[in-house]
Design a protein that fits this description.
The complex is a heterodimer of chains A (435) and B (296). Chain A is an alpha/beta fold and 435 residues long. Chain A is 52% helix and 14% strand. Chain A has two domains: 24-139 and 304-368, D-Maltodextrin-Binding Protein, domain 2; 141-301 and 391-434, Periplasmic binding protein-like II (D-Maltodextrin-Binding Protein, domain 2), CATH 3.40.190. Chain A has helices spanning 2-21, 34-49, 63-75, 90-96, 112-115, 119-125, 147-152, 164-176, 190-199, 206-210, 223-237, 250-258, 272-282, 317-330, 333-343, 350-358, 361-364, 366-376, 382-385, 392-407, 412-434; strands spanning 23-29, 53-59, 82-86, 126-127, 130-131, 134-139, 141-146, 182-185, 241-242, 262-268, 286-289, 305-311. Chain B is mainly alpha-helical and 296 residues long. Chain B has a single domain (65-291), classed as MetI-like (MetI-like fold). Chain B has 13 helices and two strands, in the order αββαααααααααααα. In chain B, strands 1-2 form a two-stranded antiparallel ribbon. Classes of the chains: A alpha/beta (435), B mainly alpha (296).
């Protein structure tokens, strides 16, 4: 009896010892709802196939909340290993100094994965020629439109407007024929403005969009911006453009389109799956097209939006290696295919695209195709590379306030000049604080 | 009669108070002092890096037109929220204090909004006042033929968040005013009735003065509410827009501190808010002292 107890005790001890040997990795992300479940499933798969490592994924709220939580945790010396950070937080993440430049730590035999990223994505996330983080969820804005309303208004349902003027012309018909109460909607968000600036091949900040050196000047008072604002204000004044009145209201814009109050919506490709389901549930035919661009300007391309995964500093080497193993597995060919199908976010690896092509995925799902073609046709230059600006969140609010001022009738030249000065000051304050 | 010395030993009271003091120290006094200290720094990344700048943050606060605009909004917002929620609360409680059939139902319905969390209340208002698909504009459009853009017009947006904040807090004032009304000495009101005072006179000459301790208490509570607890309405309904028209101090502190990582500025704004509320409370005590009747 005594011996039995000893054996049981010993085996339990050994069991604990093995359990304790598992390397624990913490992964903080900003995806709630259905996407949390998606991430959990992938993590379970990983833990099952990698018995030595135990990854724990945690939803930490919005992108901003996640970054805040990570910085505070790092300050207290228990940072999570992996953090998801939104694209405009990239410069901030570099400046915070709590992350490692990931490319330096990827083992030689896995370096091939870094060369596999599709060009626009690699372009955005290479800072100073190097990947500082692993690209993950990536998206673009595209045009969604209601084919039924287009037919009712006497428009060709297979020809969505391509340019600013074509949008205005389509709107005239839609409103005049009373096919829908409003013509077009998109969230009042600076992201769209940034995209239209890139489409014109213009820049949002000096020093090559902050890519060749730290940006010191934000370009809000530019010809490119004037073109965008004149068109937008025209749509607003004529009652063609609708929004809820709240800035950055993604759900509000979706609601306007899904309830068929607006014939078109410009929003992220990450909502393709959502819009396909919604059109099915609400009984209308969905179409997708490229983001309309200013007339007389060659389509230059869009900037990748979304987020990437960063590795924090100061962990024992074993943990750091385990975290990297997970990161590279989590974003490998197969998982990127699954991620794309489940959400609409881009498959960011060339090999994933090949798998999808082989499955005829894009021919069977044309809505996903428009989104992806637009990304692939983007020219690779500094404009589409996207700006790196430290205080980007603040600059976004400055731009959004400017848009609302212009809607209220403020003189465009004056509004742009004031916003430009405010953004430059925010940048100066930020730069002086981090240096 | 012995009124003190419930405890025999001298240190026992201190021991019993210690947990309270420990919590106050850790969660109130220390953070307050830390806020004062941080307001003198330019802070990056929630304190990862900081640089002493003296009073530069305060100078910025009082010279930047955007901040002055926010101070103005805060004053307007707080004034109307306090005045309206107390006036409406008093009026409703006088009505609810009548002996009519179904008074229990009325009282519950009046207190109900207070039981909602501000976040839920904010979302309900967002749905109701959505310009294109909200119920309010649907009804207004069907009856009067107007559909105001509640959130795009600066004045309407401010009115809306004031209305939301008042709606949410009226229930609280009703609870306290009804309690106050029920404790009024019936004999005084009866005497007035016999002497032929009109209802109007009875209210202003008797009820209102007798309620003054309650009014005074609610004035302070409502002031604190208006300054500190309106955050969810702004965050959910307008995000400070259009163009800062509804940006009030408590929302801007959050924004500067946690969205823009300007912790030093946020700390300086907190200090200003702190001083303003302390000053207002002291003023209210000073002014109130002579006018409040606590009875015998």
């Amino acid at each position: 009896m005594k011996r039995l107890a000893t054996v049981v005790g010993l085996s339990m001890l050994i069991g604990f010892a093995f359990a304790a040997q598992k390397i624990k990795i913490n992964f903080w992300h900003a995806f709630g709802g259905g996407r949390t479940a998606f991430i959990e499933r992938a993590v379970e798969d990983f833990n099952y196939t990698h018995p030595g490592i135990e990854v724990k994924a945690e939803y930490k709220g919005s992108y901003r909340d996640t970054l805040n939580a990570a910085i505070l945790a790092a300050k207290q010396g228990n940072a999570p290993h992996i953090v998801q950070i939104f694209e405009v937080g990239s410069q901030m993440a570099v400046d915070s100094g709590i992350f490692v430049p990931i490319q330096d730590y990827v083992p030689a035999q896995l370096k091939f994965q870094l060369d596999d990223y599709i060009k626009p994505v690699a372009n955005y996330y290479r800072i100073g020629g190097k990947f500082n983080s692993i690209p993950w969820n990536s998206s673009n804005p595209i045009l969604y439109y209601n084919k039924d309303i287009f037919k009712k208004a006497g428009l060709d349902p297979n020809k969505p407007p391509q340019t600013f003027d074509e949008v205005v012309q389509a709107c005239q018909k839609i409103i005049a024929s009373k096919a829908a109460p409003k013509c077009i909607t998109w969230p009042l968000h600076s992201w769209f403005v940034e995209q239209w600036i890139a489409e014109q091949g213009a820049m949002l900040a000096n020093n090559d969009n902050g890519r060749s050196a730290r940006a010191t000047n934000v370009y809000i008072n530019s010809e490119a911006m004037k073109r965008i604002m004149k068109w937008w204000k025209g749509l607003y004044d004529k009652g063609y453009y609708a929004y809820t009145g709240k800035p950055e209201d993604w759900d509000g814009a979706n609601q306007l389109f899904v309830s068929q109050q607006a014939a078109m919506e410009i929003t992220s490709t990450s909502d393709v799956t959502f819009h396909q389901n919604a059109s099915f549930e609400n009984g209308y035919t969905l179409g997708t097209g490229f983001l309309p661009v200013p007339d007389g300007v060659e389509r230059n391309g869009t900037v990748v939006g979304g987020a990437s995964l960063w590795l924090t500093k100061g962990h024992p080497q074993k943990e750091q290696e385990a975290a990297l193993t997970f990161l590279l597995w989590f974003t490998n060919t197969e998982n990127m295919v699954r991620w794309h199908k489940g959400t609409g976010y881009f498959p960011v690896l060339n090999s994933s695209v090949k798998v999808l092509d082989w499955e005829h995925w894009f021919t069977r799902n044309p809505a996903y195709k428009a989104a992806f073609d637009q990304l692939l046709q983007s020219k690779a230059n500094v404009a589409t590379q996207g700006a790196l600006i430290g205080p980007f969140p603040e600059v976004r609010t400055i731009i959004e306030n400017m848009i609302q001022e212009v809607f209220q009738g403020k003189d465009l030249t004056k509004a742009l000049a004031e916003a430009d000065a405010k953004a430059d000051k925010a940048l100066k304050d930020y730069n002086s604080a981090v240096k | 009669m012995e009124t003190h010395a419930a405890y025999k030993s001298r240190w026992l009271p201190w021991v019993l108070l210690a947990p309270t003091f420990a919590i106050l120290l850790a969660f109130l006094y220390y953070p307050t002092l830390e806020t004062f200290r941080l307001s003198l720094y330019r802070v990056a990344f929630l304190g990862l890096r900081k640089k002493f700048t003296g009073l530069a943050n305060y100078k910025e606060l009082f010279t930047n037109p955007d901040y002055l605009h926010i101070f103005g909004n805060t004053v307007v917002f707080a004034f109307f929220v306090v005045m309206l929620s107390m006036a409406v609360g008093l009026a409703l409680s006088i009505l609810a204090n009548q002996k009519v059939s179904g008074w229990r139902v009325y009282r519950i319905l009046l207190i109900w909004p207070y039981a909602l969390s501000p976040a839920v209340a904010g979302v309900i208002f967002l749905f109701m006042f959505n310009p294109q698909s909200g119920i309010v504009n649907y009804i207004l459009g069907a009856t009067l033929g107007v559909t105001p853009d509640w959130l795009t017009n600066p004045t309407l947006a401010m009115m809306l968040i004031i209305f939301a904040a008042v709606w949410k807090n009226v229930g609280y004032n009703v609870v306290f005013y009804i309690a106050g009304l029920q404790n009024l000495p019936g004999s005084v009101l009866e005497a007035a009735l016999i002497d032929g005072a009109t209802p109007w006179q009875r209210f202003w000459k008797i009820t209102f003065p007798l309620l003054s301790p309650m009014t005074f208490f609610l004035l302070i509570i409502n002031t604190i509410y208006a300054f500190f607890e309106a955050f969810p309405f702004v965050d959910l309904l307008t995000k400070g827009g259009p163009n800062n028209a509804t940006n009030i101090l408590i929302f801007n502190i959050y924004r500067d501190g946690f969205e823009y990582y300007k912790t030093g500025m946020a700390a300086a704004e907190s200090v200003i808010l702190f001083i303003a509320v302390v000053f207002l409370t002291i003023m209210q005590f000073r002014v109130g002292e002579g006018r409040v009747h606590y009875g015998s």
